[in-house]
Structures are given as structure tokens and as C-alpha cells.
Design brief:
Layout lengths: L11 E3 L2 E7 L19 E5 L10 H4 L4 E9 L8 E6 L2 E2 L1 E6 L2 E7 L5 E4 L9 E9 L10 E5 L5 E5 L8 E2 L3 E6 L6 E9 L2 E9 L6 E6 L5 E6 L2 E6 L13 E7 L2 E7 L4 E4 L2 E4 L2 E2 L2 E5 L13 H14 L3 E3 L7 H10 L2 E5 L7 H8 L17 H18 L5 E8 L6 H17 L5 E5 L17 E4 L11 H18 L5 E5 L18 H15 L5 E7 L29 H17 L2
Parallel strand pairs: 25-26, 25-32, 26-27, 27-28, 28-29, 29-30, 30-31, 31-32
Antiparallel strand pairs: 1-14, 2-3, 2-4, 4-10, 5-9, 5-14, 6-13, 7-8, 7-10, 11-12, 15-16, 16-19, 17-18, 17-20, 20-21, 22-23, 23-24
């Protein structure tokens, strides 16, 4: 799905702001046709925002089920032959949308966009009502999964297996935009390098049009190539490549009859070879973090101010990459990573696919099945939903040069025959959707190399490891020995595959100082990072370090999480912990050494 752009043929109207808002406590709104009239006894809610932390009512914050949003919008008076499209950047986790009394779309999945052509439901120059029912409930066939049980008062309680708060609401911008009846529906761009030249291959889908013409413009707007037809290739002499730290972008300007659509293009290549990760044929070493879309009050709402600030902090530290843990990020973030030259591991929302992790470590709650993959838990229907998420993510992000690797799951069960059968077709689906990038998944500590079943399906080894924290707690010499031994095991099991550490690090309470450098102190975080980095530097096969986490973030309440997860390099309000300076020194030295 293409990102919405303002062009000479397309007008864009932003519908963000304060909407009417109502909690559907009895889950009766659809049956009672709340969409057919203005919401009665409605409050207000900012869009975009997670509603949970905006409100002061605990029952609303913890509500399990449907909430309703509503507002009026206006149709352009001069719509003419153009079509009018209503688009949501995301709504977590499922949404149904009405225009006046007409249902125009439904969508499942909380982190990807959805849209509908509403032209036939509205009148040029007139206003209309938009009503949205957003449902935050998770089950065994959603991505991510979860289940619901009743408390002693008969109220629904949501259980889920992911270690971040289940924020809900309309999290990204709502847009109304026009486009011609014949229009650019999709474009796929693949780039290559031939000596000093860049090669840009494209394929355009433009239903209802007769002629497609493309122009390739450099960053200054000068034309460097043209082509005719829905498929073609443009060679750029002495191309300026997109590279880590150098986010140079060309623009493929697509003309399809009356429609004009600009697609940004970064000319670069990605390859996995001989235990190395190559960008433009050069070895690349990942320095960065797992991150979260998580901010105080806003929850998972996209915020351009915080986005720019977070990138400034990452650049200050010398980072060159991050993972979209554990779901697709806002399109604005991907665009910004393109222009800033940040490398991205792009991940689906398939987190929590591991009952062994949730039950084996934290205890199995009542009502949870004992097997991850079974008719009572994750089944063939879940697999189908998961595949759709993979294909939809790739359809949205395939043209971003910043994306170098698809991660189709975080910490799933991967040590059983059932897990192999579950992931085999999903890995294949990712490769079918995009043959140009490597595919991986993030391995959990419960599946070390001696029991791992799925690594052969993928191109890289991505590891979340907490030696010194969840195991060998505080015993960093033991932790180092065990970490070294496991890396050796992965090299033997998966020869030629590069190893990226996608999570490591301890919970650290900002301001807790300890002469004896005990766990939870800022000193212990420094020591644990130093141990991991010492081990990383002793293996050529380790090609990346993305610590957990960029910043502290909110989680479900519990005895293991006091006010959220505290593994951040920065606090939740972006204050650096002492380790931030230690890591900054290391990463800046590596940046000076490698040039990126």
C-alpha cells in the first residue's frame, strides 16, 4: 500500500484532532447502531493517541473490548471526477468504519494502514459523519495473540504474551485524500549497482489508465532518466548510493494519465554472504537498539516531535540502526529513516507466539493451553493471519531503502517439529513477497542451538540473550563463558550465517548507584554491556549489537515490572543513564573506524 502524498493530482486533508469518544461497556454499540447518529453522552479523545493513559478513569484505561470514535468531515466542493479515499494509519487492534450509516471497511491488525474509497457514500460540498469502532481484544487467531478470561465480578480480563502494554486506540493519522479515477495504485522499485552506475527497475500498477511515463529525479530535482510503460529500467551514471549514514534519495515521478505519484528511491544492494551482512557490497555492523513506539501520555501514538528527538539521540550515541520491535512502525518513521540513512530491521507484530516462555518462566495462568501450536492455541487460522501480516508489511515497506531485513516473528517457539511446520510456509511467503532482502526471526533463550529447529529456514541468526540477568544473575564471569559457548554453537549449527544480537541488557533503575555494582544499578548495566561487547568483538561472525532497549517503556503491571520495563539506555522521558555515555564512546569509535 502506497504512502499518501500530496501532488498536483492529489489533495490530502488531515482529520487529526479531538474526536467524540465513547466506551462500549456492554459491547452493544453495533447492535444498537451507534454509527447511525451522533454518539450519545460521548466524551472526547485526541486522535492520534492511545486512549489508555489520556483518561483518569481506571475502568476506561483497562477496558477490554470496543471503544467508539466519531467526527464530522467535509467533501471537497470541486471533487469533479476524482475519487475520495478515507485512510487510517493504524487502529489497534481491529476496526470497523462507517460513513454516515454505511459500513465502508473493516481491518484486523493494529499496526498497518487501511483505506476505502468512499466517493459513492458522500456528496461534493457536503459534510458527512465518520464513526469508528476500535476493538482491543486479542485471541489465539490474532497477531499478536492473547486470550480473555473472567474475573470474580464477571468482567473480561485480557491476557497476552508480549512484554509491552496493550495500548489501544487510533494510533496514527486519519487522512482524507483525492485521486483521479485512473490512478497509480502500487509501485515496486528494485535497485542494483553496476560499477559506478545505479540501476533502478520499477513496476507500476495503474488501473484505469492508458499511459504510464516515469521520470527519475536526483535530490536537487534534476532529471537523470526516463522510461515508458508499467515496467522498465533506468540506469543512473555515477549514481549517488544510499548508504548507512548517507540517506541520499532519488524520486521516481510516476505519471499515469492524469495522476502523478512520487516514489522515493534509495539505490543500494543488500546481501548475506560468508557470515557477513553486506550493504552495497561492503560489510555492515549493526549498532543500535530494539525500540518501542512508547511515550508518556501518548502511549503508542505517533508524534513527529518525539520521532525527531529520538533520532537525534540515536545519532548522538553513534547508532546506525534499529529494529521495529515488535510491530511495524508508523510510515513517517520509515520515511525519516530513509532520509537520515538509518538501517532498519522491519518486524511484524508476531510477538508472544511462545507459551513455553510465558508459562515456563512466569507460570501458566488459568485457562492458558500448554502447547504453543495446537488446535486450542496457535493453529492453521493463526498461520494464515500471520502470513497476511507478513505480506501486508512487505507491501507497505518494500520500497524503503532503510529496510534491509524482514523479521517475521520475535521470540517464538522454535524448538519443536510443530514450530518448524508453522514457520516453513511463512518464511517462503516472505521470500515470495520480496526476493531481494534476507528473511529472519528473533530467537529466544529457550531455543539454544542444541534444540533449535527453524534456523535453517532463514538467512541470518538473530538472538535475544540475557546472560547475567535472567540467567547467571549478577555472575558476569559465568555469563561470559556461557555466552561464548552459545555463539560457538550457533557458528557450528549455521555456518556462513551472520549473527546479530537483537536484545541484551539488564533492567536498570535510573539514579540507583551502587559501590558494589549490583544488578539494577547503573554500574551493573555498564558492566553487563562491557561483558557482552567484549564477547562480540571476539567473533567475526557477530555482525551486530542492538541492545534492549532504546528507552524504558510501559508494560502490564506485575511483580517483574515495576512501572514498566527498565532496560532502556534512556529513561522513558529520554534522560540518559550512565551506560549511554559508555556506549556512546564505543559506538562513535566504531563509526570513525568503519565510516558509518
Amino acid at each position: 500500500m502506497l504512502t499518501v502524498r500530496q501532488t498536483a493530482s492529489r489533495n490530502v486533508f488531515n482529520l487529526d484532532g479531538v474526536w467524540d469518544f465513547k466506551v462500549d461497556k456492554e459491547d452493544s454499540g453495533t447492535q444498537e447502531r451507534w454509527f447511525a447518529a451522533p454518539l450519545k453522552s460521548a466524551g472526547t479523545m485526541a486522535v492520534p493517541a492511545s486512549y489508555n493513559d489520556v483518561v483518569t478513569d481506571t475502568e476506561v484505561r483497562d477496558h477490554v473490548g470496543v471503544v467508539w470514535y466519531q467526527r464530522q468531515a467535509h467533501v471537497p466542493r470541486n471533487l469533479g471526477q476524482d475519487r475520495l479515499v478515507l485512510r487510517f494509519g493504524s487502529a489497534t487492534h481491529a476496526a470497523t468504519v462507517w460513513v454516515d450509516e454505511n459500513e465502508v471497511m473493516t481491518h484486523e491488525g493494529g499496526y498497518l494502514p487501511f483505506e476505502a474509497d468512499i466517493t459513492d457514500y458522500v456528496t461534493p460540498g457536503q459534510s458527512f459523519r465518520i464513526t469508528v469502532a476500535v476493538d482491543n481484544r486479542l485471541n489465539w487467531q490474532t497477531i499478536p495473540p492473547g486470550y480473555i478470561f473472567k474475573d470474580t465480578k464477571g468482567r473480561d480480563v485480557q491476557r497476552y504474551m508480549h512484554d509491552f502494554y496493550n495500548y489501544a486506540g487510533i494510533h496514527r493519522s486519519v487522512l482524507l485524500y483525492t485521486r483521479p479515477a485512473g490512478y497509480v495504485e502500487d509501485v515496486t522499485v528494485v535497485t542494483d549497482i553496476d560499477g559506478s552506475d545505479g540501476v533502478v527497475s520499477y513496476r507500476v500498477e495503474a488501473p484505469g489508465t492508458e499511459r504510464v511515463h516515469v521520470r527519475l529525479l536526483d535530490a536537487e530535482g534534476a532529471q537523470v532518466g526516463t522510461a515508458e510503460g508499467t515496467e522498465g529500467k533506468i540506469t543512473v551514471a555515477n549514481a549517488h548510493l544510499w548508504a548507512p549514514g548517507d540517506g541520499y534519495l532519488y524520486t521516481l515521478q510516476i505519471h499515469a494519465d492524469e495522476d502523478i505519484y512520487p516514489q522515493t528511491v534509495g539505490i543500494r544492494t543488500v546481501e548475506v554472504k560468508d557470515s557477513q551482512f553486506l550493504i552495497n557490497g561492503k560489510p555492515f555492523y549493526f549498532r543500535g537498539y530494539g525500540r518501542h513506539e512508547d511515550n508518556i501520555v501518548r502511549g503508542k501514538s505517533h508524534d513527529n516531535v518525539m520521532m525527531v528527538h529520538d533520532f537525534e539521540l540515536m545519532k548522538w550515541q553513534g547508532a546506525n540502526s534499529f529494529r521495529t520491535s515488535h510491530y511495524p512502525y508508523a510510515e513517517e518513521v520509515m520515511d525519516y529513516a530513509d532520509r537520515e540513512g538509518f538501517v532498519v530491521i522491519d518486524e511484524t507484530a508476531a510477538v508472544g507466539l511462545n507459551i513455553g516462555l510465558s508459562g515456563g518462566i512466569f507460570g501458566t495462568p488459568d485457562g492458558m493451553p500448554t502447547k504453543t501450536f495446537s488446535p486450542e492455541s496457535l493453529d492453521a487460522r493463526t498461520q494464515q493471519v500471520h502470513e497476511k501480516h507478513i505480506r501486508d508489511l512487505i507491501a507497505r515497506d518494500k520500497n524503503h531503502p532503510c529496510v534491509v531485513l524482514w523479521s517475521i516473528a520475535n521470540e517464538p517457539e522454535s524448538n519443536t517439529e510443530e514450530s518448524y511446520e508453522y514457520f516453513k510456509p511463512l518464511a517462503q511467503a516472505a521470500r515470495e513477497a520480496d526476493p531481494t532482502r534476507p528473511v529472519g526471526y528473533v530467537n529466544v533463550m529457550l531455543a539454544p542451538p542444541q534444540v533449535e529447529k527453524c534456523v535453517g529456514l532463514f538467512d541470518v541468526v538473530m538472538l535475544n540473550r540475557y546472560y547475567g540477568w535472567y540467567v547467571d544473575t549478577g555472575l558476569l564471569e559465568d555469563a561470559q563463558a556461557h555466552l561464548q559457548a552459545e555463539i560457538e554453537g550457533w557458528i557450528k549449527l549455521a555456518p556462513g550465517k551472520p549473527i546479530i544480537f537483537t536484545e541484551y541488557g539488564p533492567d536498570t533503575l535510573s539514579g540507583l548507584r551502587d559501590l558494589h555494582r549490583q544488578p539494577w544499578s547503573e554500574e551493573f548495566q555498564e558492566d553487563m554491556f562491557e561483558m557482552f561487547h567484549r564477547v562480540f568483538d571476539s567473533f567475526d561472525e557477530v555482525v551486530g549489537e542492538q541492545m534492549w532497549n532504546f528507552a524504558d517503556f510501559q508494560t502490564v503491571s506485575g511483580i517483574l515490572r515495576v512501572g514498566g520495563n527498565k532496560k532502556g539506555m534512556f529513561t522513558r522521558d529520554r534522560k540518559p543513564k550512565s551506560a549511554a555515555y559508555q556506549v556512546r564512546k564505543r559506538w562513535q569509535a566504531k563509526r570513525d573506524e568503519t565510516g558509518c
